Amino acid sequence: MAGAHLLVFLLRMKTFAILSIDTVVCLVVFQDNVRDVTNFDPSPTALPTSPDSDNSFPKMIIHIRGKTVTSKSVLKSINDKNDFYYTPRHEEKPIRITFGFTSEDEKTENYGMMLYHRNRLIKAFERVGCQKQNHNTHGTGVVGVAEVDFLEPIHTKQDFIRNEMFNNAMKSFGDKLNRYWDMKRTTRVLRNTRNRRGGRGESRDPATNQTPPKREINSGILDNPQSPVNQNQIQISHSTGGIGMALRGEDRATINQTDSPVQRTEEPTSSVHAQREMSAAQSKEELKTKMNELQTEIDKTNSEEVEMSATQMIEELKTKINELQTEIDKSNSEEVEMSATQMIEELKTKINELQTEIDKSNSEEVEMSAAQKIEELNTQINELQTDIVKSNSEEVEMSAAQKIEELETEIKDLKTVITKLNKDKNDMSRTLEMETYELKKEIYELKKEIANMNCENVDMSATQQEETHKLKQEIIKLESEKNEMIDAHEKETHKLKKEINELKTEIDKLKTEKNELISEKRYGSKRKKMS
C-alpha cells in the first residue's frame, strides 16, 4: 500500500467522552494488515489510558523502490569505543560523548559527529578537530555520538543555530576527538607492527574471525602427476645451498652421486631476537612521548570563561521566556496556570523595579548638560582674551593668571564629574547583570517545577496570551530605552572629551600669549630705561 501511514493515539477527551479529533480516518499500519479505526466506540471503556507495553506500538517501516530499509544503530556499529564528558555552560549534568571507529573501510567519507536533539538526529557527520584539515588523513573513520539538548535547532530541524554555545561545544568536541585519535592511533600502530612481525600471534581472517589452515610443504606438488617434479624437469645447482625440495626418479640419484653434496645453511636466530628487542624498546619510548604529549594537551584543555554582555543576557532571557511560554502552553493543570500567572506578576514587578532604577539613575549631575558649561567656559575665555589685549599692566596679568587657575580647577571638576558618571554607569551595568542572573535562576526553578508536574495539556486563555504579549512589548520598550540611555551617555562622554581637549589647547594658547605679554612688558621697560 502506497502513501503515508499515520497512527494517532492518546487523543484528548472533551466533556461527555467526546474526542477532540473524531472525523479523521486513521490507518494503523502493522507488518501485514491495515485496520480502519474511523468508526469506533467513543465510550471510555474503548479508550485505554496507557498501552500494555512499549513494544505494543508498531515500529516504523521504510520502503524505497519496493525494498525495506534496514535500520542500524550507530553506537552498536562502531568499534574501539571510548566515552568522554562535556559540561556546557548553565548546565549541571555533564553530557556523554562516545567515539569509535566505523567497521567500514577507512577511506569512506562517512565519519564525524552525529548530533542528536531530544532523540532526534539533527546534524550528521559534522567534522570537528583534526577532521577539518584537508591536507592530512587524521581522524578518518572516527564517529562521535552526542545528544546535545542544550543547543537550539533551527525551524527546519536540519541544523543548529550557530551561536556561542554551539562554537564552544564544537571546539571541545574537536579537542576530545584529537585526544581519542592520538590514543587509538598509537595502539593501532603497535597492533599492526606485532601482526607484521609474526611469531607471537596467528593471523585471523577478518570475515570469519578464524585462523586459516596450515599448508604442508609437499601438498599440491608431489601428488599432482602433471607437475614438473614428477616429470623430472627440475634441476638444482650443486653450488647453492638450495631449498629442500623433494624429487623423484633419476634426479635424486644424480644429486646423491655428486662430489659436493648439497648442504643447508641455517641463519643464526640471535640477530632476529636483537632486532625484535630494539623495536620493542623504540615502541616503548614512542609510547612514553605520546603519553607526555597527551598529558600536556589535557592540561591545556581548560575551558575559557567567556564574559557575556547585558544585551546578550537579555536575548537569552527572551528565548527562555519564549520557552516558558511554550511549556505553559503544553501544561494542562490549574496549578501550572496559577504558577504561570504568579511568575508573570513577578516578572512585571521586576520590570517595574528595573524601570524605577533606570529613572533614578538620571541624577542631577547628569541633567546638567555639558553644552552649558562649555558655553560658559568659552565666554570666560573670550573675556580673558579681551582683558589681555586691552591692558598690559601687572594687575591684568595677575587676573589672567587667576582666571587660568580657575579654568584649570573647573577642568578638574569636569574630570571628576566624568569619573562619577563612569562609576554610575558601571554600577548600573553590575546591577543589571545581578538582576539578569537572578531572573535566570528563577526561570531555571520554573522549568524544574513544570517538568515535575505530570498534567494534561491546557490551552491558555486569551487574557493570558494578551498579558504575555504586553510583557514582551514592555521588555522591548525597556531594552530600547536602555540602549538610548547608553548611547546618550556615550555621546555625552565623547563630547566632553572633545571639549576638554579643546580647552587644553586654548589654555596652552593663553599661556603662550601670557608669556609673550610678559616678555613684551619686560622689553618695553628696558627700552624706557635705555631712553
From TrEMBL:
Keywords, alphabetical: Coiled coil, Signal
Signal peptide: 1-17
Domain of life the protein comes from: Eukaryota
Region listing for Disordered, in residue ranges: 188-229, 255-277
Segments forming domain Morc S5: 57-181
Gene Ontology terms: cellular component: nucleus
Pfam families the record matches: Morc6_S5
Molecular function terms, GO-annotated: ATP hydrolysis activity
Residues forming coiled coils: 277-431, 461-520
Biased composition range(s): Basic residues: 188-198
Classification via InterPro entries: MORC_ATPase (IPR045261), Morc_S5 (IPR041006)
Biased composition (Polar residues): 255-273
Keyword Signal: yes
Name the record gives this protein: Morc S5 domain-containing protein
